[in-house]
């Protein structure tokens, strides 16, 4: 094991304390430690020789770690240690020494879960009226939503060039199976097993009772064309990051990305995705 990247939440002392404990543990074993830069500087993170990423926070911190490793030349597994509010994607370390879990990750003793990601291309207009194209990759979702004015968005949805519907709503969530338990679920979408490789498309508060969420195949391409008949105040987010900042979004194209994200799990044999679903979303205690 060459180097380990630590991604803590710097404003939370318990997260930073955990990171320092892990850093000391790794230093004693001759493993180099790399610290993630402050939020907003992820593109400057040095991933050369990094073989493991440890995030210390909630699911949002793990998504940030996934964004960081997305720029690496090779797949780097992510170990999520829960210091947040939800922690659905992170390991359960309650009652365990976090260094023990990190040691298991270093020894290759934890289970790997490959998670599909999605790639989004957004077309927008800048303040000079020029067309600008931006691209992003997401582990959870890409979402079109209304802006600060609160006015609805009107848009057409196509899959592989075939028109599906035209909607007036607060927006649309296009998520991975992993993201099905995030924003998409809050918008009324289904919980989807992480082995599903397609996308989940969920309208946000549509102004019709006929709108329904739907699933795509792994090879499908979802296209969203935003009409000009409504407010120009709208946003596009990729895993919570503003893709359309400073632009007026016009169109969005989303497909499955080529690279997966590898998440590490310390769940015992026989404990899987639906056990976590039961615990987190249905309040069942075993």
What is the helix tally? 5
Largest sheet: 6 strands, antiparallel
Sequence of secondary-structure elements? EHEEHEHEEEEEEEHEEEEEEEH
How many strand elements? Answer: 18
Biggest sheet strand order reads 7-6-17-14-9-10
Strand content: 35-45%
Domain module count: 2
Work out the radius of gyration.
20 Å
Report how far apart the termini are. 36 Å
Q: Could you state the CATH homologous superfamily of the largest domain?
A: Probable inorganic polyphosphate/atp-NAD kinase, domain 2
Per the CATH scheme, the topology name of the largest domain is Tumour Suppressor Smad4
Q: Could you give the topology of this structure?
A:
Elements lengths: L2 E6 L4 H16 L3 E4 L14 E8 L1 H11 L8 E5 L15 H9 L4 E5 L2 E8 L5 E8 L2 E6 L6 E7 L2 E8 L1 E5 L7 H4 L13 E5 L9 E2 L5 E6 L7 E5 L2 E2 L5 E9 L4 E5 L7 H9 L5
Parallel strand pairs: 1-2, 1-3, 3-4
Antiparallel strand pairs: 5-18, 6-7, 6-17, 8-11, 8-15, 9-10, 9-14, 11-12, 12-13, 14-17, 15-16
Walk me through the structure.
The protein has 286 residues and is an alpha+beta fold.
In short, what is this structure?
The protein is α+β, with helices and mostly antiparallel strands and 286 residues long.
Which descriptors apply to this entry?
286 residues; globular; alpha+beta; Rossmann fold; 2 domains; single chain; 6-stranded antiparallel sheet; 36% strand
């Amino acid at each position: 094991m060459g180097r380990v990247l630590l991604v803590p939440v710097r404003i939370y002392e318990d997260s930073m304390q955990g990171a320092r404990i892990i850093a000391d543990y790794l230093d004693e074993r001759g493993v180099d430690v790399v610290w993630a830069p402050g939020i907003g500087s992820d593109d400057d993170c040095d991933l050369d020789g990094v073989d493991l990423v440890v995030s210390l926070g909630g699911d949002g911190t793990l998504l940030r770690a996934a964004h960081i490793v997305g720029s690496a030349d090779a797949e780097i597994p992510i170990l999520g240690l829960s210091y947040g509010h939800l922690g659905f994607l992170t390991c359960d370390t309650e009652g365990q020494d976090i260094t023990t879990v990190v040691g298991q990750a270093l020894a290759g003793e934890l289970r790997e879960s490959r998670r599909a990601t999605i790639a989004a291309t957004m077309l927008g207009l800048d303040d000079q009226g020029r067309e600008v194209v931006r691209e992003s990759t997401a582990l959870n979702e890409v979402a079109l939503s209304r802006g600060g004015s609160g006015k609805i968005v009107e848009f057409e949805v196509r899959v592989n060039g075939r028109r599906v519907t035209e909607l007036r709503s607060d927006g649309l969530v296009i998520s991975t199976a992993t993201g099905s338990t995030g924003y998409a679920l809050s918008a009324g979408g289904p919980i989807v097993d992480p082995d599903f490789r397609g996308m989940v498309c969920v309208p946000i508060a549509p102004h019709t009772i006929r709108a329904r969420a739907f699933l795509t195949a792994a090879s499908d391409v979802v296209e969203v064309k935003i009409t000009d008949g409504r407010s120009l105040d709208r946003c596009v987010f990729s895993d919570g990051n503003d893709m359309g900042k400073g632009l007026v979004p016009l169109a969005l194209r989303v497909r499955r990305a080529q690279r997966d994200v590898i998440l590490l799990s310390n769940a015992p044999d026989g404990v899987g995705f639906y056990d976590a679903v039961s615990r987190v979303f249905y309040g069942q205690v075993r």
